[in-house]
Amino acid sequence: MRRMLMSLTALGLLVFLGAAHAVEIRFYPKQVRSYELDATRNIRSVVLQNMAIVNDSKADVTVLEVVIEVLDRGVAYESRTVRTPELDRAATAGANLQSSGMLGTLAFQFGGTALLPKGTTLSATRVLKSGAAMLLMHQVLTFDGKRDSVRVNVRTLTGMNEASVFILNNASSMGYSLPFDGMWHDGAAPSLHTHHRWAVPEEFAHDFTRIGANGLPYSGDGTKLTDYYAYGQPVLAAADGQVIAVLNDEPEDTSLLQRPGEALDAYVKRIIERQNQQLARGARGIVGNHVLIQHGQEYSLYAHLQPGSVKVKTYETVTRGQPIALVGSSGSSTEPHLHFHVCDGPDVLLCAGIPVRFENVEIYGALQSRQLQSGDLVRNKK
């Protein structure tokens, strides 16, 4: 009898282990990077951009909850639980993204087929058929101090499944200057309340504009590109490197400018269709005219440039501070500005963003050295 009990116990263990491997947890990017929320208190945030829960078994699997923990040397310090109502919404949103065709349009957000291999069906519910997946996006975690990994536990009706990703707490491996002269406004930095933080290639990007004495980025009524103080300003290489990609002939679209007196909600509604068209055109439609410079294992992107203004060619070597183009409003741009970011690959869309370590930068009014946040006025120190 004792031998039989041992056999039954072993069989139960095998059944449990088999169930635990029924679900595969995939991530894109395969590591996450933190960014400062508050330098004084050393509070940081990470965004788990994309997680796919894939049913690798032959039977249906029901996802009950997802527990996300922030760890340091194996010890969990912070956690959040994604329960059934949120999981239901996530499943519906993912299925709608796929059925609408936007999953393909936004393939760069999911690493091409790195997260979801071709032919994967996104389930509209928490009940995953064999081979189906559920997409869980934009999970935000905050912590103070240093953490080294994120652990995800997915609980189903048949067991627990676990996977982890590393947290990289450092900024870019090399230092960069601001890609312009004078005082500029960082209108959209990697802060959580701006759009950059939620897109993989531009997660740590910056949109720089210039502000006039009137407190606005333009003079007159702002209906012409030349009304904007940033328009036509020189763009400078932020570090030494080699140019590996250039686009210089994408036209600018003034219909993307907000009209005088146009309410914000009406404006957003009006341009969504146009911006979706730009998305469908890939890099040309999204970033417009641009220069991509390689710095070892990192790549800096200068986007939305004025047509015909690019002064450098592919494979040309550039030096820090060298003029390379003029600020414009090409691509998916709602006003003249310089979009700047650093990422980990040579494709302007199919890469993951890296926080920029700016050197010799003055943040107007800041009493300490810190990473840039949305709304900062910044310039290179003299």
Describe the structure in your own words.
A hairpin with a 4-residue loop joins strand 3 (35-38) and strand 4 (43-55). Residues 1-21 have low confidence and may be disordered. This protein is an alpha+beta fold. The chain contains five helices and 24 strands. It has two domains: 21-168, Immunoglobulins (Immunoglobulin-like), CATH 2.60.40; 175-380, Glucose Permease (Domain IIA) (Distorted Sandwich), CATH 2.70.70.10. The strands form five sheets. Strands 12, 13, 15, 16, 17, 18, 20, 21, 23 and 24 form a ten-stranded antiparallel sheet that branches. Strands 2, 5, 6, 7, 9 and 10 form a six-stranded mixed sheet that branches. Helices cover 16% and strands 35% of the residues.
Return the CATH topology of the largest domain: Glucose Permease (Domain IIA)
The count of strands amounts to: 24
Count structural domains.
Answer: 2
Between the first and last Cα atoms, what is the distance in angstroms?
A: 85 Å
User: What profile does the largest beta sheet have?
Assistant: 10 strands, antiparallel
Oligomer description: single chain
Series of secondary-structure elements, N-terminal to C-terminal: HEEEEEEHHEEEEEEEEEHHEEEEEEEEE
Shape: globular
Radius of gyration, taken over Cα atoms and rounded to an integer in Å: 23 Å
CATH architecture assignment name of the largest domain: Distorted Sandwich
Helix content: 10-25%
Our estimate of the beta-strand percent is 35-45%
